[in-house]
Task: structure prediction
Amino acid sequence: MRRDVEDWIRALHDGGPRTRPRDPNTVWGYLNRIRPILLGWSHHYHHLREVTRDDILSIANTLQGNERRHTLSVLRSLFGHCRKRGVVFRDPTTRIRVGPNNYRAILPLEDNEITEATGAATTPATRLAVALAAIHAARSKDIGELLLADVDLGDRRLTIAGRSRPLDDLTYRALTQWLSYRRTHWPNTANPHLLVNRVTAVRTCPVGRVWITRAFWGLTATLDRLHVDRQLEESLTHGPDPLHLAAVFGISPGTAIRYAAAARHLLETPAEHHDLHS
Result:
């Protein structure tokens, strides 16, 4: 069983003739999602081909919403890979309904939650990360992949995920402070990425997502939550227009529609009816 799981993980990480390599964080997220399930099966089975449809259903019936959807999707990926490789004869996840995405209500962050996040940003790198997420709605993945070539201090422009954006004063200051820190600590690094640390300074790869996000663990206003809040704020400020959101942030039509719908709901609902704990 272990060998087949390792082969699946390797295929996700490395990609194949018809599939792209997955982000390492995604791969580990997949494995961690089903690790307790695999450990449970290992006490009863020696091989994945022994797992039955009833085993999958017994797991699915204990889950709800997006947790059910994610778990079944990962199991479907595992058994689909094993079926293609011929190590299982039948896919036990076949014809088990995954179900639709059950999105939670998108609500604005409270001022104190944002204050906690800015207070947690105590280094030049984390202060820059907060500015990029909260002002430019950059995802943590996009922050890590920024290149030095994406920064144009002279024209005050910054390219994030292929989209050029004007630099506001706060982000400009955070950028110049980080670049000064970078030059002082790693003056000879050949790494082309904007953010580097002591590990990546001697390489050319981006910093890991954990390094970028660790300072905000346990907070309500994580970097990804700040990214979401910025897009919602744009929709509340300029009206719930999906086309405007897609043009400003380069997000997919489906995501833009979702944020616009959330903004419309907030604008049409009295403030006292908003459930801040949804």
In short: Residues 271-278 have pLDDT under 50 and may be disordered.
